[in-house]
């Protein structure tokens, strides 16, 4: 409902605007609708087709508004790309109408809209040939744009260049990357035999437009057009790599010849744009074989820009000189106006009306008139502007002759020494020249009260020289040479003689003044009171702070192409040397309590000596703060400072003084580190310029490696230190190698990647890296403090602590371990043991590794290096037997990734499987298991077969993967040994054997062809039949072991799809024919009857009778199984039991009393024809319960004839003929 309301508002506003009676209402409604489009772009997509249809008949105000709406829709991010593409088909007619307008008011926006919509328009015309009319409109638009490109105003031309870029990009073929074919719109999308799009014509048009753009770069005298063309060419070269050759060859030969006569800033802007284009090519790898040409073009451009900058500076200097020369003319004109103004009746009005250069001129002239009052005393000099004052001063100084300027300086010096001012000998009467007057006015001191009186009286009073004692020192005197001072003294003496010549009388006032001054000849000012330490530091801090602030601001304001603070500036050198050299000595000072913080002593005068080194540290701290504020721009200042400190430390070491370089460089690095960002090389550019680096800096840089965001910066710095800084190479390499054992996976792997590149080429770091890897292997063999590996409980607790406690190391590790061991011996609780702090295995080698994560810390780098140095695996295998069980399992777990990366055909792995040392079976088996995961190569199978045949101590697990690929004789030979893995009683081994049986046994006949596709494909003749497997297990029960064989048989019975009742019957029939009856035969028969009830008749009527023939009662264990089997198969087994001798029959009844009644019933039913025999057996069965166990002949081979009958007589059965009833038992 809300969307419908919004649409209704938009339609209502549009309808109100179209039906407005006046222009104000129309403008208001259109403005509201435009705002609605901005906030609810969905309305724009609905109304745009209707709006563009209004363009041909719309008034100017509506046209302008529709142009703004098109700009909003297609040139800004108002609509999604899909929405713009869908609406693009409605724009060509409106764009053409705007371009055909004679006034070209909306041509620029129309061209921009066309440039944004040309790509989707071209795609739609390619995919739908029905847009032929639309394409004709597009062709007319392109023709109109080409005309405006030649004849239109500048803004339209810039927009046309952008449109040319889109047309050229679309109408040229895309690159060979298949990923961009469905995304990048190009002429390659045009299908064959298209109705109106001809690829050849389109490409020709694109080439012509490209030629026009390139030509404009060389011929145009408009800087803006040239920059637009350069930007367009750079984008085309990136989007269409085949065009990069044309673009680069054109741009490397460009010169600003067409811009001759243009302002320097315009030429500089074009040159900068070209330089950015070349940088764009370099960044996107578009230079190809043209890199040398681009470098030459950049060098030539640099020379052009320097020459142009120099010429522009000379031009500006000439212009300034011309202006200075014209100032004299302006001053003369000002004098005329001044004389006219002086004719006014009121002098106050005249003075108040003076301003600007006129007032300045009058002020200078009045200041030069010494014999009359100054008429401009009321003039306010602050009303003059600073540039005007500077121009006046410079003009006056350049206009004054050198001789006159020198005389003015001499007169100023004379005034400072109290000597009278002698008029120049060549000065004509009347007012002096303006330039000379100005210089005198500036240099001369204000007149005294006596001089004013003398001037008012019209006479000149000679000035008495003041005594030199007690006068402040003249600052100008410090700049004079000795010869100048002698001349000045001689001139002063001559003036004094002239003033006191005979014939001149002194007045009373003058005599009194002379007497008063004479009394000051021996006057001596008290020495200035020295600053305290605190005051001195505050003063130094304030002064240096002002210099740093002013210097930094001046450098930032004057740097045009560089943001760096100039290092070789006066203020920087002054501050740096003041800190490094200015306070090296001690000075006398009034030592106040708490202020003597340096070296102290006493001078020859007995005054205390205070070290000034703390003042230098105050300056150094200020420089550190100055650098920290904007380090990236003040690197040259930092380099100059620390280089100066390093140089001064050389002499300090000779004098046995403390050094500063190794103290303040780490402080600078510490202040910079928090501001270092990812991939920021600013710090290392700074460190690369320094003469040396202390170990502390290396450690600080290594600390960056622990920050995940800035890890790359830290490793980059350590790598550069190791490669390019030999003095700290060992320290940097040690940091990297220590990080290669870190507990953090990401940190450790990055460190390993950093150092592994130094291995394999025989470089200077290879030996150190390999030695570190060997130390890691050695750490794996460390056992506990008592020489034993940790037990399972301790390992589990340590693993839990390792997962929850990330503390690296702890104090008193040995004592803590000892306490834990004692607690375990005394039976303390688990909670107390679990509180043991985690120890760092990289620093503490007194304990064995406790979990797989700790093992990975030390084994990962040897495994990584073994890719380049295969012999590293030999060392791992050699150390494996000495490792604890926990470590061995960890190594077996982590070697899997290495084996997978090397592959099953790796020669080194195959060689290790042949030659691994004794005790390393577990590791070799892990390697072999991983190698056999994705297939068994012939080389791998051959290697393992040879291993099994050559070595008797090989683990049976080696046979599991290869048995499915062996021939039938090999299976019969190797399978019994493979079954021995069941001795471990592990569930996974039981599953392994079950899978092995399924892979080496063929299916029964009804299952042929249903072999799982996951099993190896071999011929059925090479597989075992199920009954053959059972026979193999029974025949090798002594080799395998009775319990293991029984477990293997149980596994067979669980595979009911293979071991069916018919298979078991065949197996039992085969086994009973063996000369030596297997011990587990009866157990198998019982399991067969239990599993398949249908086998009861077969076993009772067939198997049991054949066992009686084999005298099974001679072996106790099979005989017990026989009785149990007879009991389970009853009554079918009764016929077979009556085939037993009497003693064995009695033993059966005694062992299985439950058979007595069944046997009696069987006799009564089957023995009716021979009552005597039946009666005898009945008596025998009845008396079986009273017979003692010793009376039984079981196991002694007794015969029926020897059995005692009822009543103690002989059996009624004569001979050994058994009772046959109804032929059963045959």
TrEMBL record:
<dbReference type="GO" id="GO:0005847">
    <property type="term" value="C:mRNA cleavage and polyadenylation specificity factor complex"/>
</dbReference>
<dbReference type="InterPro" id="IPR032460">
    <property type="entry name" value="Symplekin/Pta1_N"/>
</dbReference>
<keyword id="KW-0539">Nucleus</keyword>
<feature type="compositionally biased region" description="Acidic residues">
    <location>
        <begin position="823"/>
        <end position="833"/>
    </location>
</feature>
<keyword id="KW-0507">mRNA processing</keyword>
<feature type="region of interest" description="Disordered">
    <location>
        <begin position="781"/>
        <end position="843"/>
    </location>
</feature>
<feature type="region of interest" description="Disordered">
    <location>
        <begin position="298"/>
        <end position="354"/>
    </location>
</feature>
<feature type="region of interest" description="Disordered">
    <location>
        <begin position="1187"/>
        <end position="1226"/>
    </location>
</feature>
<dbReference type="Pfam" id="PF12295">
    <property type="entry name" value="Symplekin_C"/>
</dbReference>
<feature type="region of interest" description="Disordered">
    <location>
        <begin position="416"/>
        <end position="476"/>
    </location>
</feature>
<feature type="compositionally biased region" description="Gly residues">
    <location>
        <begin position="1194"/>
        <end position="1210"/>
    </location>
</feature>
<feature type="compositionally biased region" description="Basic and acidic residues">
    <location>
        <begin position="303"/>
        <end position="338"/>
    </location>
</feature>
<dbReference type="InterPro" id="IPR021850">
    <property type="entry name" value="Symplekin/Pta1"/>
</dbReference>
<dbReference type="InterPro" id="IPR016024">
    <property type="entry name" value="ARM-type_fold"/>
</dbReference>
<feature type="compositionally biased region" description="Pro residues">
    <location>
        <begin position="421"/>
        <end position="434"/>
    </location>
</feature>
<feature type="domain" description="Symplekin/Pta1 N-terminal">
    <location>
        <begin position="107"/>
        <end position="322"/>
    </location>
</feature>
<dbReference type="Pfam" id="PF11935">
    <property type="entry name" value="SYMPK_PTA1_N"/>
</dbReference>
<protein>
    <recommendedName>
        <fullName>Symplekin</fullName>
    </recommendedName>
</protein>
<dbReference type="InterPro" id="IPR022075">
    <property type="entry name" value="Symplekin_C"/>
</dbReference>
<dbReference type="GO" id="GO:0006397">
    <property type="term" value="P:mRNA processing"/>
</dbReference>
<feature type="compositionally biased region" description="Basic and acidic residues">
    <location>
        <begin position="834"/>
        <end position="843"/>
    </location>
</feature>
<feature type="domain" description="Symplekin C-terminal">
    <location>
        <begin position="955"/>
        <end position="1150"/>
    </location>
</feature>
<feature type="compositionally biased region" description="Polar residues">
    <location>
        <begin position="792"/>
        <end position="807"/>
    </location>
</feature>
<dbReference type="InterPro" id="IPR011989">
    <property type="entry name" value="ARM-like"/>
</dbReference>
<feature type="compositionally biased region" description="Low complexity">
    <location>
        <begin position="341"/>
        <end position="354"/>
    </location>
</feature>
<feature type="region of interest" description="Disordered">
    <location>
        <begin position="588"/>
        <end position="608"/>
    </location>
</feature>
């Amino acid at each position: 409902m809300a969307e419908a309301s919004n649409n209704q508002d938009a339609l209502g506003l549009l309808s109100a605007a179209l039906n407005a009676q006046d222009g104000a209402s129309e403008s208001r409604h259109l403005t509201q609708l435009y705002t609605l489009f901005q906030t609810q772009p969905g309305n724009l997509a609905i109304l745009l087709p209707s709006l563009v249809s209004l363009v041909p008949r719309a008034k100017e105000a509506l046209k302008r508004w529709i142009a703004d709406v098109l700009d909003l829709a297609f040139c800004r991010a108002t609509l999604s790309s899909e929405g713009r593409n869908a609406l693009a088909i409605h724009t060509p007619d409106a764009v053409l109408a705007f371009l055909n307008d004679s006034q070209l008011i909306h041509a620029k926006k129309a061209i921009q809209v066309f440039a944004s919509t040309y790509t989707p328009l071209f795609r739609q015309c390619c995919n739908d040939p029905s847009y032929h009319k639309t394409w004709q409109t597009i062709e007319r638009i392109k023709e109109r744009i080409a005309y405006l490109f030649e004849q239109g105003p500048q803004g339209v031309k810039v927009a046309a260049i952008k449109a040319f870029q889109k047309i050229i990009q679309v109408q040229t073929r895309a690159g060979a990357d298949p990923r961009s074919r469905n995304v990048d719109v190009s002429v390659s999308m045009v299908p064959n035999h298209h109705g109106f799009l001809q690829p050849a014509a389109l490409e020709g048009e694109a080439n012509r437009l490209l030629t026009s753009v390139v030509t404009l770069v060389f011929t145009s005298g408009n800087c803006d057009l040239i920059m637009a063309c350069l930007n367009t060419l750079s984008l085309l070269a990136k989007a269409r790599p085949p065009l990069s050759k044309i673009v680069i060859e054109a741009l490397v030969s460009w010169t600003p010849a067409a811009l001759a006569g243009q302002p320097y800033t315009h030429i500089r802007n074009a040159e900068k744009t070209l330089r950015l284009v070349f940088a764009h090519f370099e960044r996107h790898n578009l230079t190809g074989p043209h890199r040398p040409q681009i470098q030459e073009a950049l060098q030539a451009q640099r020379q052009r820009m320097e020459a142009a900058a120099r010429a522009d500076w000379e031009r500006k200097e000439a212009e300034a000189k011309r202006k200075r020369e014209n100032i004299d003319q302006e001053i003369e004109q000002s004098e005329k106006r001044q004389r006219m103004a002086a004719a006014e009746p009121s002098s106050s009005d005249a003075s108040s009306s003076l301003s600007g250069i006129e007032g300045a001129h009058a002020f200078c002239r009045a200041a030069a008139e010494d014999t009359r009052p100054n008429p401009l005393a009321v003039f306010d000099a602050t009303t003059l502007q600073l540039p005007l004052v500077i121009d006046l001063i410079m003009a006056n100084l350049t206009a004054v002759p050198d001789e006159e300027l020198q005389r003015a300086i001499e007169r100023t010096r004379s005034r400072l020494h109290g000597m009278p001012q002698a008029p120049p000998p060549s000065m004509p009467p009347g007012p002096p020249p303006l330039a000379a007057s100005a210089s005198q006015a500036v240099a001369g001191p204000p007149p005294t009260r006596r001089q004013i009186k003398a001037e008012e009286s019209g006479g000149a009073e000679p000035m008495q020289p003041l005594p030199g004692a007690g006068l402040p020192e003249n600052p100008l005197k410090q700049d004079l040479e000795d010869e100048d001072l002698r001349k000045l003294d001689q001139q002063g003496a001559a003036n004094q003689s002239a003033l006191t010549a005979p014939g001149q009388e002194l007045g009373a006032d003058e005599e009194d003044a002379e007497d008063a001054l004479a009394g000051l000849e021996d006057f001596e000012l008290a020495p200035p009171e020295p600053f305290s330490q605190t005051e001195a530091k505050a003063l130094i801090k304030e002064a240096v702070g002002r210099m740093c602030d002013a210097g930094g601001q001046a450098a930032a304001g004057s740097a045009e192409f560089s943001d760096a603070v100039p290092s070789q500036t006066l203020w920087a050198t002054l501050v740096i040397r003041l800190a490094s050299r200015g306070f090296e000595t001690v000075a006398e000072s009034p030592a106040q309590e708490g202020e003597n913080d340096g070296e102290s002593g006493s001078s020859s005068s007995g005054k205390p000596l205070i070290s000034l080194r703390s003042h230098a540290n105050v300056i150094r701290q200020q420089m550190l703060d100055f650098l920290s504020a904007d380090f990236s721009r003040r690197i040259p200042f930092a380099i100059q400072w620390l280089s100066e400190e390093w140089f001064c430390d050389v002499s300090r070491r000779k004098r046995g003084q403390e050094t500063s370089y190794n103290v303040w460089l780490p402080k600078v690095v510490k202040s910079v580190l928090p501001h270092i960002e990812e991939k920021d090389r600013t710090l290392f550019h700074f460190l690369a310029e320094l003469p040396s680096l202390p170990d502390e800096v290396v450690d600080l840089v290594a600390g960056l490696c622990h920050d995940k965001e800035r890890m790359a910066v830290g490793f980059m710095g350590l790598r550069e230190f190791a490669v390019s800084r030999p003095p700290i190479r060992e320290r940097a390499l040690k940091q990297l190698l220590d990080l290669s054992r870190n507990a953090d996976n990401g940190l450790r792997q990055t460190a390993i990647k950093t150092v592994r590149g130094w291995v394999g080429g025989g470089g200077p770091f290879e030996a150190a890296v390999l030695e570190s890897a060997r130390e890691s292997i050695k750490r794996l063999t460390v056992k506990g403090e008592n020489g034993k590996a940790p037990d399972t409980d301790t390992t589990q607790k340590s693993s839990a602590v390792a997962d929850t406690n990330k503390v690296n190391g702890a104090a008193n590790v040995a004592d803590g371990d000892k306490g834990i061991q004692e607690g375990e011996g005394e039976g303390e609780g688990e909670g107390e043991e679990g509180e043991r702090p985690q120890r760092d295995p990289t620093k503490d080698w007194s304990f064995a590794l406790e979990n797989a994560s700790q093992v990975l810390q030390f084994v990962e780098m040897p495994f990584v290096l073994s890719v380049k140095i295969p012999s590293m695996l030999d060392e791992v295998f050699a150390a494996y037997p000495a490792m604890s069980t926990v470590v061995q399992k960890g190594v077996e777990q982590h070697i899997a990734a290495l084996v997978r990366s090397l592959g099953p055909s790796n020669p080194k792995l195959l060689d290790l499987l042949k030659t691994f040392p004794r005790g390393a079976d577990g590791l070799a088996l892990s390697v072999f298991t991983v190698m056999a995961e994705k297939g068994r190569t012939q080389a791998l199978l051959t290697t393992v077969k040879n291993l099994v045949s050559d070595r008797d101590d090989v683990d049976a697990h080696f046979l599991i993967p290869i048995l499915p690929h062996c021939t039938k004789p090999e299976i019969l030979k190797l399978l019994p040994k493979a079954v021995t893995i069941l001795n471990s009683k592990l569930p996974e081994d039981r599953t392994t054997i079950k899978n092995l049986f399924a892979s080496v046994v063929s299916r029964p006949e009804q299952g042929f062809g249903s072999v799982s596709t996951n099993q190896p494909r071999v011929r059925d003749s090479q597989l075992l039949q199920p009954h053959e497997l059972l026979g193999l297990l029974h025949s090798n029960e002594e080799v395998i072991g009775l319990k293991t064989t029984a477990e293997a048989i149980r596994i067979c019975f669980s595979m009911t799809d293979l071991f069916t009742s018919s298979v078991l019957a065949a197996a039992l029939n085969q086994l009973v024919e063996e000369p030596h009856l297997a011990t587990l035969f009866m157990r198998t028969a019982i399991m067969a009857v239990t599993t398949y009830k249908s086998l009861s008749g077969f076993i009772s009527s067939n198997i049991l009778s054949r066992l009686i023939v084999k005298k099974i009662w001679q072996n106790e264990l099979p005989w017990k199984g026989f009785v149990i089997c007879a009991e389970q198969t009853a009554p079918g087994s009764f016929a077979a039991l009556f085939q037993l001798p009497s003693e064995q029959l009695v033993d059966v009844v005694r062992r299985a009393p439950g058979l007595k009644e069944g046997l009696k019933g069987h006799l009564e039913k089957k023995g009716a024809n021979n009552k005597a025999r039946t009666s005898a057996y009945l008596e025998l069965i009845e008396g079986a319960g009273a017979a003692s166990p010793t009376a039984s002949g079981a196991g002694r081979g007794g015969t029926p004839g020897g059995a005692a009958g009822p009543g103690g007589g002989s059996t009624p059965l004569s001979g050994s003929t058994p009772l046959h009833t109804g032929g059963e038992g045959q």
